Amino acid sequence: MAEFLQFTIDGVTLGAIYGLLALGWVVIFRVSGVLNLAQGSFMVIGSLTVASLANQERWPLVLAILTALFATVMVGVTLDVAILRPARSGGHASSVIITLGVAEILGEASRHLWGADPLQLSGFLSNRAIHVPGGATVTAQQLLVWGTTAVLVGLLWLLFEKTLLGKALAACAQNPDGARIVGIDPKWMRTVAFVLASALAGVAGVLIAPTTPIGWDSGLAFGIVGFIAAVLGGWSYPGAIVGGLLVGLTENYVAGYISSAWKDVATYGVLLLVLLLRPEGLRGLSRTRPQQKAESGTATAIVLPQMGQPQIDGPAEEMPIATREA
Amino acid sequence: MLVVQQLHVGYGGVEVLHGMDLEIQRGAILALLGPNGAGKTTLARTIAGLVRPVSGRVILDSIDMTRIPAHRRIRHGLVLVPEDKGLFPQLSVTDNLALGCFVRNRHRKHSQFERIFDLFPALATRADQAAGDLSGGQQQMLAIGRALMAEPDFLVLDEPSLGLSPLIIQVIFETIRELATAGMGVLLVEQNAKRALAIADRATVLDRGRVAMSGSAAEVQEDPRVEASYLGSAV
């Protein structure tokens, strides 16, 4: 029982970090239709920046953290403004290829900057364990992860519920043409989404940095885990956190009770099970609006929610013949 | 004045509009009539910037709008109420209206709210409901109300009567007439020709991408060819 409790505590911690990654996937996809495979690379850059600055360069921790967040946001904004925008990316497929390429480039750049050896941030918070009822322990670091995740989720909720900017982001997701009519520039909304997503990834990177060594080549794998969590959560914001927790718990239970060699198999197994049994993800379990439900039938429909394909580049041509006046 | 000059529009190589010319004065309603497939919606969407023309120009108060992206046209006072209403279904009535003045008129948001709720009291009582949960008529009111939040100089309405009850159509058409009388230019795309002609100053009949007839609303209404070809079946 104590063992189970411990796996759960560790799983929730890892899951919260995955949830932050998944939130980044969801915000970019919902606002712009772009699938950002570089999401995990943002996180790795955050981790490596904070670890190298704090440990090797002896920067004050707070300054190292702020620099790491700034660096990830800069990378995210650059990807959007300098690469996706000129590419006039229209559609899931081209965004996948572009961001996959960017993830590879960011990986190689990280190896150049920080070397081939994984880095782990030390001296972040004391690893002194706090004993909890049931025989398990919680570290201050884990409490920090939980608290930070909760605060970020709260801030995101405030943004989307209480601010006009949040409403404009939602408007882009719900009706791209309607958004353009009222004067919302989808190009800049996508940039805002990239700022949010890369900031979330940067925080995830800082949070995971003290817990495990992070290597330059792990960006894509973390990114895919975030994607899986987003799919499990049915591409909703609360679902992203729930999906992240599910993946984190699955990994820890499988690693704890079976073998850590099997944890990736389990994660992808859960993804396959969900795709086969509940293609709409967990969203169907909560309050669902019918028009949001994914249609099964095509490959993208199974993984991605049905939504209009936003036009990013101003007065673009309409889709061919099919959309002609009825 | 909103001017459309020699507008050619096509999708994937198939031309839908073959050189349209239009002029709408401030304070006047131009009814754009014609059968299904004539290109009315295409014209409305091209004026709004959602479709890029192959050639030709859209000019608003002597500013060439043709290359200006859709999201910037509202700043120049040009707003579309699209056929599908363009609402944000999961946002509340209030939020939809608030986004109507996202870029224009924001400082007057609160007085604008009052004005729209006066115009359409049905919206006031449902201010916190999601737009997607409204009835068709209420959604149309919301779509028009959202467009009015920006206080446009020119309003393009694409089939505002579609699927609505005669009573609601009357409310909406009376509102459109009042807005025009107050100085707004209106392009009213309609299949409901009799009702549109009743409030319009001028009318243009579109057929297979070409102007079939153009004149004052009375002339168009009385023209026997128009009556036979376009109005008879569309009422």
What tags apply to this protein structure?
heterodimer; A: 326 residues; mainly alpha; ABC transporter involved in vitamin B12 uptake, BtuC; two-stranded antiparallel sheet; 12 helices; 2 strands; 67% helix; globular; disordered C terminus; B: 235 residues; alpha/beta; six-stranded mixed beta sheet; four-stranded antiparallel beta sheet; 10 strands; 38% helix; 26% strand
What report would you give on this structure?
By secondary structure, chain A is an all-alpha fold. The longest helix of chain A has 31 residues, at 2-32. Chain A has a two-stranded antiparallel ribbon with strand order 1-2. Chain A has a single domain, classed as ABC transporter involved in vitamin B12 uptake, BtuC (Orthogonal Bundle), CATH 1.10.3470. In chain A, 67% of the residues lie in helices and 2% in strands. Chain A is globular, with a radius of gyration of 20 Å. In chain B, the strands form 2 sheets. A 6-stranded mixed β-sheet of chain B has the order 6-7-8-3-9-10, sandwiched between helices. Chain B has a 4-stranded antiparallel β-sheet with strand order 2-1-4-5, covered by helices on one side. The chains are: A mainly alpha (326), B alpha/beta (235).
Topology:
The complex is a heterodimer of chains A (326) and B (235).
Chain A: H1 2-32, H2 39-56, H3 61-87, H4 92-114, E1 129-131, E2 137-139, H5 140-162, H6 164-174, H7 176-181, H8 186-208, H9 219-232, H10 237-257, H11 263-277, H12 299-303
Antiparallel strand pairs in A: 1-2
Helix pairs in contact in A: 1-5, 1-6, 1-8, 1-9, 1-10, 2-3, 2-4, 2-8, 2-9, 3-8, 5-6, 9-10, 9-11, 10-11
Chain B: E1 2-11, E2 14-24, E3 29-33, H1 40-48, E4 55-60, E5 63-64, H2 70-73, E6 78-81, H3 93-100, H4 109-119, H5 121-124, H6 136-149, E7 154-158, H7 166-181, E8 185-189, H8 193-199, E9 202-207, E10 210-216, H9 217-222, H10 224-234
Parallel strand pairs in B: 3-8, 3-9, 6-7, 7-8
Antiparallel strand pairs in B: 1-2, 1-4, 4-5, 9-10
Helix pairs in contact in B: 3-6, 4-6
